[in-house]
C-alpha cells in the first residue's frame, strides 16, 4: 500500500494486453477502466468511467473479471468485505496479484475503509453485506471518488445514486455432454446473462461464455439474451 502513489494526476496504465477489453490508449486518455470482453459493449463509454460508482449484483464471476481486467492493464484494485472472492479465478483470467489488495474483514465501517482506499486505488470493490448506505453518506463518498479519479464498485447491498447497475446471472454450463451423454464429462464453460442499466442509457443485455483456453480463462460474447431472460434479470 505504501508504494502505491496517491491518485490525483493523470491515470497511467501499463502496456499489458487485455483481450477484449477497452483499448488502453483510450482508457488512459478518457479516464476509463477496462472491463472483460463482452461487457464493454453494454457500457456507453466501453468501460468503467473513473470517478463513478457502479453497482454489481449476481454472479461473482463478474467481479472477478473486473479485478482481472484492471490489474492486467496496470491498475490497482482493493477488495473489501469479500472473503470468498476467488483469487485463483482472478489469476486464471489474467489478474496481476501484486496489484490486488484484500481486506476481508474491514470492521464495523467498511464504507470508511473504501473511502480511504479511493485515494490510492484505481478500482475499489466494496461488499456491503446486505447494508443500505444513507444517501448523504453515499454522496460524500461519490464526491471523493470523483476527486481522486477512482471507481467504486458496490455489491451485496443498496447504494443510492449508482451511475451504472450490472446484474449477472448464471445461464448454463458447458462440457457435460448432450443426449445420452448428458451429465457426463467435465465443466468446460460457464454462461452468464448480463444486464446493464444506467441513468444515461436504456437497459442493455448480453450473454457471455467464460471458458478455459490455452491455459487461461477467457470471456467470449455469444448472443443476445432472450426477452424471457431480460425479465428474469
Give a quick summary of the entry.
Helices cover 23% and strands 31% of the residues. The protein has 6 helices and 13 strands. The chain has helices at residues 24-30, 61-72, 87-92, 110-117, 135-148, 227-232; strands at residues 32-33, 48-49, 53-58, 77-80, 100-103, 123-127, 132-133, 151-155, 158-159, 164-174, 189-198, 201-213, 216-221.
Task: Walk me through this protein's architecture.
The protein has a nine-stranded mixed beta sheet, sandwiched between helices. A two-stranded antiparallel ribbon has the order 1-2. The protein has a two-stranded parallel sheet with strand order 7-9. By secondary structure, it is an alpha/beta fold. Mean pLDDT is 82; it is low at 1-5, 7-29 and 225-232. It has helices at 24-30, 61-72, 87-92, 110-117, 135-148, 227-232; strands at 32-33, 48-49, 53-58, 77-80, 100-103, 123-127, 132-133, 151-155, 158-159, 164-174, 189-198, 201-213, 216-221.
